[in-house]
Specification:
Blueprint lengths: L8 H52 L3 H85 L2
């Protein structure tokens, strides 16, 4: 009985390698998204804390210089938040793109695996049929030998 050899084994291995590489890229995109999203969260939290602090100081009273300082600080913070929001959108877009690519590659690998399973099952069935034919031929030969007196 001949050993089973899948004819698309190299293609399957290549597709699995592509899938693995895409998984790595997707994980990196998720990490990058998490980093920029955390940075955005921190900036928004800092803005919120600064506004609360400013309100508290307004109730107590503070100098015009301090007011100008808070205004400049908040303007700078707003600019940084705007940049961070852009980065988050880009990172999310990249992450979503890699997620789609990963799904595509996973489906491709799964198709080849299914084809391999079916091909292996066909091979096994074929080998069983060949074995049955050989056993029938052996039984026929044995029967003829007994009839002929060999």
């Amino acid at each position: 009985m001949k050993a089973y050899q899948y004819r698309f084994e190299k293609v399957l291995m290549y597709r699995e390698q592509e899938k693995t590489e895409t998984e790595i890229e997707y994980k990196e995109a998720v990490q990058a998204f998490e980093i920029v999203a955390t940075q955005l969260y921190d900036l928004l939290k800092k803005k919120e804390d600064t506004l609360l602090e400013q309100v508290e100081k307004m109730e107590v009273g503070f100098s015009v210089n301090e007011i100008h300082h808070y205004v400049r600080f908040l303007e700078t913070l707003e600019k940084r938040i705007a940049v961070a929001q852009q980065q988050v959108m880009q990172a999310r877009s990249k992450m979503t793109w890699f997620e789609g690519k990963l799904l595509e590659r996973t489906l491709e690998v799964r198709k080849f695996e299914k084809m391999k399973e079916k091909d292996h099952e066909n091979h096994r069935t074929e080998m069983e049929q060949l074995e049955a034919i050989q056993l029938d031929e052996l039984a026929t030969l044995k029967f003829r030998r007994r009839e002929n007196g060999w």
